[in-house]
Design a protein that fits this description.
The structure is a single chain. By secondary structure, the chain is mainly alpha-helical. The protein has a domain of 57 residues. 55% of the residues lie in helices and 0% in strands. It contains four helices and no strands. Helix 2 packs antiparallel against helix 3 and helix 3 packs across helix 4. The longest helix has 21 residues.
Length: 101
């Protein structure tokens, strides 16, 4: 069941391009969003990703920021799809060969 199914409305942003980039997305957010969206999810979301952020910062020292961001994004994507954090970590690590995807 999607997060937005019954109890949350889904806010569909309007972008000027397919992949908004900073600072355009920041300017858009300031103009369009006058209050935080889904404030009740903020703590939970930040707490869930905190270990991945810490891991990514350490991983970037050994590899690269691109590689670390790919790993963390893939792991948090899998968690968002319902996988537990440890399995997400092990899954993404299993995709690597010599610290490369």
């Amino acid at each position: 069941m999607p997060l937005y199914h019954n109890h949350l409305s889904y806010y569909q942003p309007q972008y000027s391009s397919q992949f908004p980039q900073y600072p355009e997305s920041e300017i858009w957010a300031d103009q369009q969003i006058k209050q935080p969206l889904y404030p009740h999810l903020k703590s939970q979301a930040l707490n869930i990703i905190a270990p991945f952020v810490k891991y990514g910062l350490e991983e970037a020292k050994e590899t690269s920021y691109v590689h670390a961001l790919q790993e963390v994004a893939a792991m948090t994507y899998l968690v968002g799809k319902g996988m537990d954090p440890q399995t997400a970590y092990l899954t993404v690590e299993s995709w690597e060969i010599n610290e490369m995807f």
